[in-house]
Specification:
8 helices, transmembrane helix, about 75% helix, about 0% strand, transmembrane, membrane
Length: about 200
């Protein structure tokens, strides 16, 4: 059991690596666009390694890494087409937009994955928990766009809440204590969301 938990925590931290690197580069003075491209490359590598190794990605990290993979190329591409107002709009909302990507990813997983958004073994068991996590993701998205405070409160806090909620729901589904295994993934998830802070 302890070995399994350690493996899970290491996997969660590995999935958080693209965002952690993004934070380090951005806060270290590397340009936002360059940091975004590096994060996109790392996200592509993480997603590819999950595919070839057939390991199961944390669904929340999956949404975050898809967001990191897409956001910089899309914004740069739109600017290159001369659609600068659209590009600036997407850039302004790219921070909070991670919840839209998480929500879209969760919806697709709930509909088409046998493990659902929550990541359980069968559709019958996962559906109620996946729907709860989807609802929480929608609330997190609404909170993030409506809350005009510091990025830590508008993004990192609800993101960490989603990671904690997923742990509690999985523990409940398995009949375990909801307090087990709450430490590392929420912290890693909060770190991945911290880059969404506007620095305030």
């Amino acid at each position: 059991m302890h070995v399994f938990k350690r493996v899970t925590w290491v996997k969660d931290l590995a999935e958080a690596l693209p965002s952690i690197v993004f934070i380090a580069l951005w806060r270290g003075g590397v340009g936002l666009e360059a940091a975004g491209w590096i994060a996109a490359l790392l996200s592509a590598m993480v997603l590819f390694l999950h595919q070839v190794s057939q390991t199961r990605s944390n669904p929340l990290f999956l949404g975050i890494n898809i967001h990191l993979l897409l956001v910089t190329p899309v914004i740069v591409g739109i600017h290159s087409l001369g659609m600068h107002e659209v590009g600036r709009f997407l850039e302004t909302n790219s921070y909070n937009g991670v919840f839209v990507t998480i929500l879209a990813t969760g919806g697709l997983l709930t509909l088409f994955s046998p493990r659902g958004f929550i990541g359980l073994e069968s559709r019958q068991s996962h559906l109620p928990y996946s729907l709860i996590l989807l609802a929480a993701s929608a609330i997190a998205a609404a909170w993030s766009f409506a809350f005009a405070g510091p990025g830590v409160l508008s993004v990192a806090l609800p993101a960490t809440g989603l990671f904690i909620l997923r742990r509690v729901l999985i523990a409940h589904a398995k009949g375990a204590s909801g307090l087990l295994g709450l430490a590392v993934a929420p912290v890693a998830g909060g770190m991945t969301a911290a880059w969404l802070s506007d620095g305030s």
